[in-house]
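**Tokenised fold:**
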Amino acid sequence: MQEAVRAEKQKKIFTNVSEVEITRAIANEFNSVLIDRADSDVIIIGAGPSGLTAGRELALMGFRVLIIEQNNYLGGGYWLGGYMMNPVTVREPAQKIWDELGIPYKKASDGLYITPGPHAASKLIAAACDAGVKFLNLTKFDDLVLKNGRVAGVVVNWMPVSALPRNITCVDPVALEAKMVIDASGHDSVAVKRLVDRKLVDWKGMDPMWVDQGEDAVVEKTGEVFPGLVIAGMTVTETHGLARMGPTFGAMLFSGKKAAEITAAKIKALGK
């Protein structure tokens, strides 16, 4: 009886795996993604709701998609619904996208639907992963690759590098190439602003809040602003000087879908 008890105590729960095996597994998987997606069909800057939606749609169409995100976490502002309260809203007909993703929600009023932000964000992230989207998080956009008058990729670096003083670090970035790039970086509009710096496009900055006007305009204005560069989500608002819409996300989801459709058509037109 005592021997049986001792044997039970000695029984291991987990398989023996060495520390170095874990390190090698992580490094090998990371490198495999980096090598495979260093040349992608589409690179998306920003893993907020518009970027994730665009990425999922394109991956479901069969395109090889890489999303770069400067934060450790994915989802952008989709985790919160405003004022540090986590319920998020969409206006009809955007709840149909929640239906598609299996996100439960409640009707708050006629044409307005609400769900916990963590549920909406996590479901969208999972859907993008399931579709085959790959991610490089803690990766900061630095510049664009520009060839023959069109955007041909992005220049990136580790996010922590940007937090260090220049006099103690000199870390060159690396380039990732793509047939098309989508700027879904939100208010920062990082890719667009690089083109603005070179006087290649205009950027206006967003107008004050007006939900009805702002959401429709975002979807309408989603599109290519420079050969090879499509804009989505709040990047559209900032670039074209549109009204902000605050904590409602239907336009972000619809803009992501439209950005994916436009990007797919552009790639097909290139014949690549």
Remarks:
- The longest strand covers residues 174-183.
- The chain has one domain: 40-79+119-270.
